[in-house]
Every structure is written in structure tokens, then in C-alpha cells.
Fold this sequence. Notes:
alpha+beta, disordered N terminus
Amino acid sequence: MHSQPRFRLLIATALLATTGLSQAGSFQLRSPDIPANSHIAQRFEFQGFGCSGENQSPALSWQGAPAGTQSYAITVYDPDAPTGSGWWHWSVVNVPADVQALPAGAGAVGDALLPAGARQVRIDYGVAGWGGMCPPPGDRPHRYIFTVHALKVAKLGLPADATAALAGYMIRANTLASASFSARYGRPAAR
């Protein structure tokens, strides 16, 4: 039979762990343009590489970041790209802590629609801006993972020519919590 104090300690520890999980679970990312687990509309497709979309980034909003958040970073990643390392479609850093949304089109090259101080990092298309979906024709639909990271620093000290991989390293080293959703996009086989 367990002793009463030890049993109470185990129960208290379990309750604290559960409370922490529910607080961490309150950090959420959403898009009115791309619902979680949906098929992404063609307008978000890249323009180039054989794709003919509008190459417009979707609107995003988030809530429930943990205490101590000093800035945010947003990433969009395709783990199914046939590169051996996936494909970075968007990387935004230094989004101020008082911002909780980005409008559609915020990923335009030049950062004009981003909050003051925020900047985009060069992605796998070679530009510092949004690069829409463009999986090879006939591939099964690719997964696109949208993530907002709550960071413990106000600014990431990235060089002007930083890659998305370097940004990803710095983001993860400074993340307090993150919230994600994914959606899919595919193109029919070429005729």
C-alpha cells in the first residue's frame, strides 16, 4: 500500500503536468484562407517553375502565446518536396510580440506589408518573400506545414543573406512554444 504523502505528491505532480500541457496547448495558429487539413486553393500556388498561381501568401492569425514571448517567427515548409531536405516556402522573423496576425499578401518581396521591424528570410526559391506551392505534376499532394514560433528574444541576429535553414536553426534555439497546422496541395500529371 502506498503512503498517503507519496500518493498525494504523485497526484499533485500529475495535475501540474496536465495544467502545463493545457496552457501550452492554448497557443493556436489559424488562417481564414487555408483551413487546417484542407486542400490549398490554386491562388496560393507559385508563379514560375511551371506553376501559374498568384503566389500570394495567406492571411494568418495566432493567439495564446506563452508569457515571456518577445517576438514571433513564421515558417511554411513542405517536407514532401523531392529534394532530400524538404522545401522552405516562407520564413519571417522579428515579428513584434504585440502583433497577432499577418494580412494576405504580407509575403510580397520587399517586406512592405509586414509589421515594422519584421523581415523575410531567403527561401528555397532564392527570394526573401513568399514562395507558393509548386509540387511536381502527378506527385501525391504535398503537405505544407504553417508554423508560428513564440520566441524568447525580441530580434534574431541573422545576417542579411541568411538562408531559411540558418533562420530555422536560430528560431528553434529561441522558441518558447510553437503552433502549427498543415494543408495539402497537388498538381495533376502533365498531359
